[in-house]
């Protein structure tokens, strides 16, 4: 075995005695040094900066969305008013055409009645000899 392996085995050997006051196992250094402080400040600054940027982006998108919605509502209201106007005009035009057709049919009926009255005596004379 190499010397490194022997030294590793000897440090974990159960019969190994530690000097008084010495602790075995993992030991953590709880002191805070300048690089640690700089790292924590940088990390906190980055997280806060990310949060503020995200909030501002969402706020801007919300404002734009509200503006778009109000524009769409205005457009919908304008289009609805235009549709109502077109429907009213169509109703008026249809009513006018119906009235004109009624008047035309009255005139045609009156003309047919006049024609029938003129032809009625001749038709009666021609049909006198016929039986039912």
* Poorly predicted parts: none
Give the termini distance in whole angstroms: 144 Å
Helical residues, percent: over 70%
Note the beta-strand portion. under 5%
Q: Counting H and I runs of at least 4 residues, what is the number of helices?
A: 2
Could you name the key traits of this structure?
mainly alpha; rod-shaped; 132 residues
Characterize the structure shown.
It is built from 2 helices and no strands. The protein is rod-shaped. The chain has helices spanning 3-11, 34-126.
What's a quick, concise take on this entry?
The protein is mostly helical and 132 residues long. 77% of the residues lie in helices and 0% in strands.
Set down the secondary structure blueprint:
Blueprint: H1 3-11, H2 34-126
């Amino acid at each position: 075995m190499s010397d490194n392996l022997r030294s590793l085995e000897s440090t974990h050997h159960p019969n190994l005695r530690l000097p008084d006051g010495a602790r075995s196992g993992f030991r953590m250094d709880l002191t805070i040094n300048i690089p640690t402080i700089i790292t924590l400040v940088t990390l906190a600054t980055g997280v806060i900066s990310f949060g503020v940027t995200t909030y501002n982006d969402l706020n801007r998108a919300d404002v734009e969305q509200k503006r778009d919605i109000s524009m769409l509502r205005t457009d919908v209201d304008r289009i609805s008013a235009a549709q109502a106007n077109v429907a009213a005009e169509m109703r008026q035009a249809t009513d006018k055409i119906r009235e004109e057709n009624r008047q035309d049919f009255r005139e045609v009926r009156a003309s047919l009645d006049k024609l029938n009255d003129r032809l009625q005596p001749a038709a009666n004379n021609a049909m006198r000899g016929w039986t039912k």
